[in-house]
Design a protein that fits this description.
The chain has 322 residues and is α/β, with parallel strands linked by helices. It has helices at residues 16-23, 39-49, 89-107, 121-124, 131-139, 164-170, 173-189, 215-229, 240-248, 260-270, 306-321, and strands spanning 4-8, 32-37, 55-58, 70-74, 113-116, 145-149, 154-157, 197-200, 234-238, 254-257, 276-280, 285-289. It has a twelve-stranded mixed beta sheet, with helices on both faces.
Length: 322
Amino acid sequence: MPPTIGITTGDPAGIGLETVLKAIPSLLTSARWVLFTDRSVFQRNAELFNPNLKYRWIRTVEECGDENVLFLLDVGGDSSEILFGSTNAAAGQRAIAYLEAASHAAMGRKIQAIVTAPVSKEAIGPGFKGQTEFFASRAGCAQFAMAFFTPTFKVVLATIHLALRDALNRISVQHYIDLIRFTDSELRRFKFDRRRIAVAGINPHAGENGMFGREEIEVLRPAVDICAAEGLTVSGPHSADSLYFRAHTGEFDVVIAPYHDQGLIPVKLVAHGQATNVTLGLPYVRTSPDHGTAFPIAGQGLADPSGMDAALRCALDLVVRA
């Protein structure tokens, strides 16, 4: 039986569904793909971006058959009044509805993975930190992490959506010990044989032995030493200005970055359109493309589907590996 993988529509005003419709045809035979959507938003996008796509509406995931079609699960609601490119609360609430339905199906073991199209945090409103945190909360995860998989290396973030000052205040020896162990465990879960973990420094030149800050000496080095003594293949802290290139060229398999932008800038520079956001720690696979809603080009047929294609293929690979 092929795996069953869910896809969320994302913000109805963005490019998410356009990228799904462009990317999915070449993958229809590899899994049973279930799009969590509503009729109005799907029909509007399908007419514009893939009028020849084969699809079938279903009421429950159990109705999926063996046809090589995109299965469409209508979560209810109406997106017909939502304009492309607009940031509004109605679109945010539709995006949440798709996420809730997909999360419920995944937690009920009806689907093995979720691939999420981009959402707008502004449209959803205060209290929504991101899709990573949303799924972790719904799953009751004691530990989770945002990771990015590129064709050449992986990045795991020690902190996610926080102001930089707040992110650095969250970092501790125990935090890093737990994260290094967790990263190795998750890579083993997905049967990655090579798990060379490099810890990136926080300060310029990894602090230059305390000249530019002591976080490397007092926080990162003790955590690395403890985990290395346990037999994990981990090293660092390494100077971040050269570390990501070293990983990209094959010296390391995964880099642990201390804060969001340090890890994401090199990922999007060297693997734009090829990198996939992966949530580690969930009881199912969750992936997402590495771009946002792109409101300025929404509805114009200009969206590049390569990021969504990478996210769909990554989800399929991880489901097979698990």
